[in-house]
Design a protein that fits this description.
By secondary structure, the chain is mostly helical. The chain has 2 domains: 23-126, no CATH class; 153-328, Intergrase catalytic core (hpI Integrase, Chain A), CATH 1.10.443. Helix content is 52%, strand content 3%. It has 14 helices and 3 strands. Strands 1-2-3 form a 3-stranded antiparallel β-sheet. Helix 1 packs antiparallel against helix 2 (41-61) and helix 2 packs across helix 4 (107-126). The longest helix has 21 residues, at 41-61. The N and C termini lie far apart (95 Å).
């Protein structure tokens, strides 16, 4: 190198010459990588769907958009705005009339899309397919804390009264609802439950890594009452169907998450619960709240039983109502404790 000359330094601002990659090719690259990382099939399906929604919107709105290298943070922010304020819920769904649905997706749904797209572009950047990284400064939207994301004990009692246990479907649904409240299982874990995953001697449910959200082996304790219900349901299944699935339709097919969520909503409406969101996930919130707030089980034990990877997620789910706060205050007030001790001395 000649004296007095300086070597050009590479910085993050330096534009690298990279080959143009189509969206289809980029998606194939990311999906192949995620499969190699061991992501569950359900997660892979969700990845494909969310990325497809984004690329379809992008190519429709920007006709000259052809390569993933051309995506900027401005495009991503415009898409987030579209999801929040323009996209109709259930748009493109084959079984739901989207024209009757409200406009604007929930904050939770939008954040799921942001997380997926962030992982998508981070992978392409880390593997050297794009530069710069368009999601480097992309942030999640702020979510309001939902104080009604669980049921009260009175609502749970009313719901449990609704299934007609004298017929197969009603009894199956009663067992499913009981198991959700007894174990905190995710809906996918429940509808996919098989006979060999139940240890009746413990009693407990044993889920392998391929069956849980974080691919962690998990043991889920259940009550003897719930174990008895599961035994009865399995006997009923075997009397009519050749299946190892625990929760099946009247034709013997494994239940889908969508079908079971519809059943949960049906029973909640019959119980007079019409203003709250009703899904299996709300039952999971309810289970966690009762375990921690009512039963005083420590949050780390509940985290392990429920399979939460991040305890902050669990804390967000367990919101205290005004009634909970009042009861906790009355039970723990230092002033009232001192007054009570003085009364006892008198």
């Amino acid at each position: 190198m000649a004296k007095g000359t300086k070597r050009a330094r590479y910085t993050s601002a330096t534009k690298r010459e990279l080959p143009n990659i189509t969206f289809d090719r980029a998606t194939d690259i990311v999906i192949s990588g995620k499969i190699a990382e061991g992501l569950r099939e359900r997660t892979i399906i969700d990845y494909k769907k969310i990325v497809r929604y984004f690329t379809e919107w992008l190519t429709q709105k920007y006709e000259d958009m052809e390569y993933v290298n051309d995506v900027t943070i401005e495009h991503l922010r415009a898409y987030i705005h579209y999801l929040r304020y323009e996209r109709r819920r259930y748009e493109g769904h084959t079984n739901i009339d989207a024209t009757k649905q409200p406009v604007g997706l929930s904050e939770t749904t939008v954040n799921i899309a942001i997380r997926t797209l962030t992982a998508y572009f981070n992978y392409l950047y880390a593997e050297g397919f794009i530069d710069p990284n368009p999601v480097e400064r992309l942030k999640l939207i702020k979510q309001d804390v939902d104080m009604t994301n669980n049921f009260t004990n009175e609502e749970v009692a009313r719901i449990l009264e609704q299934p007609e246990q004298r017929d197969f479907v009603g009894f199956r649904d009663y067992v499913g609802i009981s198991l959700l409240l007894d174990s905190g299982l995710r809906i996918g874990e429940l509808v996919g439950l098989t006979v060999d995953e139940i240890d009746f001697s413990a009693p407990q449910i044993v889920l392998g890594g391929g069956r849980t959200k974080g691919r962690y082996f998990r043991i889920v304790p259940i009550s003897t009452y719930c174990a008895k219900l599961l035994k009865q349901l399995i006997e009923e299944n075997r009397a009519h169907f050749d299946t190892d699935s625990v929760f099946v339709s009247s034709l013997g097919d494994q239940l889908t998450t969508n079908h079971f969520n519809k059943r949960l909503k049906f029973y909640a409406e019959r119980a007079g619960i019409k203003t709250k969101k009703v899904t299996a996930h709300v039952y999971r919130h309810t289970w966690a709240k009762i375990m921690i707030v009512d039963k005083k089980i420590d949050i780390y034990t509940v985290q392990k039983m429920g399979g939460w990877k991040d305890i902050r997620t669990l804390r967000r789910y367990v919101q205290l109502s005004t009634e909970d706060l009042r009861r906790s205050h009355d039970e723990g007030s230092p002033l009232m404790a001192i007054r009570d001790s003085r009364r006892k001395r008198i």
